[in-house]
Amino acid sequence: MFPPLPNPPTAPTPPRFGDKDLIRRSASSVTPPAQRQTQVAKLIDVSKCIGCKACQSACLEWNDMVEEVGVNVGVYDNPHDLTPNSFTLMRFTEWVNPETQNLEWLIRKDGCMHCEDPGCLKACPAPGAIVQYSNGIVDFVHENCIGCGYCVKGCPFNIPRISKVDEKAYKCTLCSDRVAVGQGPACAKACPTQAIVFGTKDEMKTWADGRIKDLKSRGYKNAGLYDPPGVGGTHVMYVLHHADKPEIYAGLPNNPRISPLVEIWKGVAKYAGFAAIGALAAVTVVHGLFSGASRVSSHDEEKAKEMADKPPEGTPRENA
Amino acid sequence: MNMEISRRGFLAGAGAGLAGTTLGAFGFGDVEAAHAAAIRPFKLANTAETRNTCTYCSVACGIILYSKGDLKKGEKAEIIHVEGDTDHPTNRGTLCPKGAALLDIVRAKTRTLYPQVRKPGSDKFERVSWDAALDRIARLMKDDRDKNFIAKNNDGATVNRWVSTGFLAASATTNETAWATYKVVRSAGMLVFDNQARV
Amino acid sequence: MTNSWTDIKNTDLVVVMGGNAAEAHPCGFKWVTEAKANRGAKLIVVDPRFTRTASVADYYAPIRQGTDIAFLLGVINHCIRNDKIQWAYTKAFTNAAYVVKEGFGWQDGLFTGYDEEKRDYNRSTWDYEIGPDGYAVVDETLQHPRCVWNLLKQHVAIYTPEMVERICGTPKDKFLKVAEMISECSSPTKTMTSMYALGWTQHSKGSQNIRAMAMLQLILGNIGVRGGGMNALRGHSNIQGLTDIGLMSNLIPGYLTIPTEREPTFDVYMSTRGFKPLRPDQMSYWQNYRKFFVSFLKSMWGDAATPENAFAYDWLPKLDVPAYDVLRAFELMHQGKMNGYFCQGFNPLLSFPNRKKITAALSKLKFLVVMDPLQTETARFWENHGANNDVNPASIQTEVIELPTTCFAEDEGSLVNSGRWLQWHWAGGTPPGEAKHDAWIMAQIHLRLKELYRKEGGPVPEPIVNLDWRYADPNEPTPEELAKELNGSAVVDITDPNDPTKVVVAKGKQLVSFAALRDDGKTACGCWIYSGCFTEAGNQMARRDNSDPDDTGAFGKWSWSWPVNRRILYNRASADVSGKPWDPSRKLLEWDGTKWTGYDVPDIAPNAKPDVVMPFIMNPEGVSRLFTRAMMRDGPFPSHYEPFESPVANVVAPKVRGNPVARVFRNDFEQFGDAKEFPYAATSYRLTEHFHFWTKHAHANAVLQPEFFVEISEELAKEKGIKKGGMVRVWSKRGSVTAKAVVTKRIKPLICDGKTVHIVGIPLHWGFIGEAKKGFGPNSLTPYVGDANIETPEYKAFLVDIEPIAGPVA
């Protein structure tokens, strides 16, 4: 058994990370800390998951979120998608393995992957609305959020959701409030079968190795770890029984990467500088870039490459 | 908290393949640092803890109730969070989707709050006092028992049974409640007596 | 459970059949995933549906609901034919060698002695031959044609893999794969655990489903060992406790029984209890029955229970029928023969079969009292909720009194888990509104009733006015006071029988265990099996030391388990006849030459010689029973019977409908449907997101699974033109419901005896009060029939029809 998360403290406990541990801040620069904190990660072992939704329940409760009572649409997934009040969601797929003809019920906990190279943060035009701590947690700072939705477009996993109530973006915080006092995320604490475990990223990789070995011994020859390099690796990783086909798990991207459009926008920001043009102007500039779908078409890619090769016209170079 | 215990027992044997979690090592930063704006203040700070057992199935997961105010100090206590008890041998801090949402049942909008009576033929409940409700119940029981109690059967054997009123007991109450219930029900001579174990 | 949740980590093979542990008991299921991860254990799931447990199984085999006995006897047959038997265990620790009386037999689906008129058996031949020495005759060579082993071999011979496929619809290759995996556990160093729940109990032959697996576990040598056992995954948090304390029609705490009217005196009552050993030197622990019973009577009536009045034996009500279980209660109510009913934390309107009958029955009551922390459908059975509760309040004359109670978080006391651990918990929140503890309410009812009898008199007031109610505050006995009563104490100074001047237990002191109980009225004890839970050393149930020497999973210092803090029942069977553990790596107990030592409290006298005293000490034989004598109403061996509503005929007993001695009331026969009119095999079950009818009141759970649905295969959906997420109507002979349709690959049609059988799955969590969408429960459809032995209704197998209807299509 992976060592269970301890009971949370009730004595006031100073947070173990904060502003000085930021390594990225949207649309602004930060002074990186002298030493990076130990990187954390959540490991979701899909092969151990029983689809009980304890993670959803614990997430709702810990974050004091009141989700709408929906309807049944013929599947077990409820709610039917991530929402500003549901940071995580079990996605159920009935898959017949073509090799064995056996039914496999693939159940994947969806939610923020806390990318090492976060597309949401890079796409965000609002200074300080999205931050990344040196331990790897990518967090939204709602008071700085302008509700533009570019984080949604910038996310290769289609995770953030904009609230219709306050027009701000929401997603999993990796329970930054719990991690800050030496705890793990509420979902990991609750998970009955330890399909979700939490620790340092190195520990998680070691633990995953053992799990993969077990799966291979049970005939899952393609069992493996999902820690996609296209986004610099993630601080939420999966153990998959069929790691060669992540897409069968309710469309987990095979090779996720930040849309090239976001890279362009980074270029724009770099040249323009937020202080110079202001957030509102920034929104206007990027609007054209992101008006399409979050999925990248080959046409977009070509266009992006072309644009990236040369700085946008009329950009003052001296601010670079 | 009730029954403080050490976690020695678990940590010694835990973590096949790992030396034990390094959770404590996550933060190297200055512990004096203020909360970053993004990080919520930790909501369990200064709450009272009480050990309890999940009310649902018979796995009987250990839980901790976190409250504002402490019953043990004679205060009014409002439960604000429920979490699995990591010290518990069975659940090790985990909870299922029901257990993880226990707070929603404690604070359900549809909790019963006051004694109510629905009169024959009525389409609504009416609030009554405890005394009125209990006196009424005792009266109804006595009248029925007096009328239908069977002291002897046709063969003249003493049977002392009352079968025109029945009692269905709850299997989420404590043993102690169950025993009090047993005494009251059986002493009245009731045989129509059952509980959820039947179904 | 014979074992405990944490012990499951010690197993090599988990068989989940008749249950759905991952969904209904997720945190207990953790120990299955641990066994898999650490021991390389395998998980087999046998179920009509590919459940969430199946989603993490190593092997899944489908089965038609209601055919488990055929499957399990098929496995036993496979083990016998392939010599996969733990022989040393089977020969020494079961009644395989016992010779059965002449005249016993099985023919055309019936055992000897059937009386069709009475729907009952004369069971006189279902017993052992008794020798001139007064003991049962045994043939240790297993050669005698009427020894249990040969009768068993003969009885299961018809359940070939082909027959299993015909009956169960389990393809032969899948059955054989499961049988092979199971039969490997006949090795003394391999063990299997059976995890089951209501998937086995909720049948008209539920007890025999469990018997069949217990027999298999015995011949594999898996009872009493670490990682083995028969593990009933019980449903409610204290359903085990309520059973232990005997809150049932025919029970007295600690599995003693209420007298029948054929037992008008104490002596007659005792003459059929307290069994003498059936073999030399065996413990036959029920010989102590009188001690338990007298101590119980003392705890009820205190000083008023005297040797002169046979300890107030007359004040116990005497049964005229086997039991007034819930089916009989609602039958009587329906006939207008009951006037009052109390529901303490129970919701019969959604829980009991044939809801139409339940509504009609409740409507005939004069009064109904509901004690519950939540508003229940039962308390509002008279309230119109459109199609979801289509009643006319004006026509219902029942007076309903609803009393608000505290919930777990506001209450203190002990609960018994599936593994028999009594765990104490503390109150953490202030009750809302005017909610009160149940014990307070019961005290108030008792005190008021007593006062009325004192004032007005009435028939036989003695048991009420003399009830021992000496609590510090009679208005509200405390949990500690009640727990201490359950444990038992000395009524007077108890002296050493060898030295009358020496006081062993002083008057008023708590007893150490049931070994201290007396049959002369000198001790009082509410529930003998709980004796030891609250001693002079304090509240043992509140112990919270989670140490576990050598990681056996026993956790002997965490809380307290009955009996006498024993964690694995029959644990002496973990060692062979010489007292050596069958599997040294899984040692539990060991005979050190003079006494038993090990990780658990021995389930035998500590100095009982291993080759003399056999492990099953509650049985007068000292061994376990493959043949149950006359102790079960429907046969000493399990036998395949179809559900009362079955899509196919019984191929091994074509003339028999259902279980021939199952409980059916006359009018309910007419309410059974047949396969012509209702072609689909329905079953009901829980979902992991919900707990019965409670969590529809919890917002988060309502979010996770908001709306009533039924599940069908893609094949049936195609046949009937039903769309995923579309509305359907499902109806049986007894009622009709509307639901959303979940069309899934997880349910497949089965081929049974050449016929395609479609399955309709009906989860049970919706009603008309709470946060979730209004819906129906399966009890609108289910038949009113009970198991032959324990009267549990047959919720798991019945017939319906289904059609698409207009409505929202998602």
Automatic annotation (TrEMBL), chain A:
Coiled coil region boundaries: none
Gene3D superfamilies recorded: 3.30.70.20, Single helix bin
Pro residues bias spans: 1-15
CDD domains: FDH-N (cd10558)
Co-factor requirement: [4Fe-4S] cluster
Pfam families with a match to the protein in the record: Fer4_11, Fer4_4, Form-deh_trans
Gene Ontology terms for molecular function: 4 iron, 4 sulfur cluster binding; metal ion binding
Broad class of where this protein is predominantly found: membrane
Annotated positions binding [4Fe-4S] cluster 3: 112, 115, 120, 155
GO terms under cellular component: plasma membrane
Residue ranges constituting the 4Fe-4S ferredoxin-type domain according to the UniProt record: 40-68, 103-135, 136-165
Residues where [4Fe-4S] cluster 1 binds: 49, 52, 55, 191
This protein's UniProt keywords: 4Fe-4S, Cell membrane, Electron transport, Iron, Iron-sulfur, Membrane, Metal-binding, Repeat, Transmembrane, Transport
Cofactor note text: Binds 4 [4Fe-4S] clusters per subunit.
Residues involved in [4Fe-4S] cluster 2 binding: 59, 172, 175, 187
Biological process terms in GO annotation: cellular respiration; formate oxidation
Protein localization: Cell membrane
NCBIfam families: FDH-beta (TIGR01582)
PANTHER family in the record: FORMATE DEHYDROGENASE, NITRATE-INDUCIBLE, IRON-SULFUR SUBUNIT (PTHR43545)
Protein name in UniProt: Formate dehydrogenase subunit beta
Gene giving rise to this polypeptide: fdxH
TrEMBL record, chain B:
InterPro entries in alphabetical order: Mopterin_OxRdtase_4Fe-4S_dom (IPR006963), MopterinOxRdtase_cofactor_BS (IPR027467), TAT_signal (IPR006311)
Domain of life: Bacteria
Keyword tags: 4Fe-4S, Iron, Iron-sulfur, Metal-binding, Oxidoreductase
GO BP annotations listed: anaerobic respiration
Organism from which the protein derives: Rhodoplanes roseus
Iron is among the record's keywords: yes
Identification of the protein by name: Molybdopterin oxidoreductase
Domain 4Fe-4S Mo/W bis-MGD-type: 47-110
Main location: other
One GO CC term, this protein: cell envelope
Molecular-function GO terms, alphabetical: 4 iron, 4 sulfur cluster binding; electron transfer activity; molybdenum ion binding; oxidoreductase activity
A Pfam family: Molybdop_Fe4S4
Family under the similarity heading: Belongs to the prokaryotic molybdopterin-containing oxidoreductase family.
From TrEMBL, chain C:
GO BP annotations, alphabetical order: anaerobic respiration
The entry's keywords: 4Fe-4S, Iron, Iron-sulfur, Metal-binding, Oxidoreductase, Periplasm, Selenocysteine, Signal
Residue stretches in coiled coil: none
Subcellular compartments: Periplasm
Required cofactor names: [4Fe-4S] cluster
Keyword 4Fe-4S (UniProt): yes
Gene Ontology cellular component list: periplasmic space
Family: Belongs to the prokaryotic molybdopterin-containing oxidoreductase family.
Protein name in the entry: Formate dehydrogenase-N subunit alpha
Species of origin: Rhodoplanes roseus
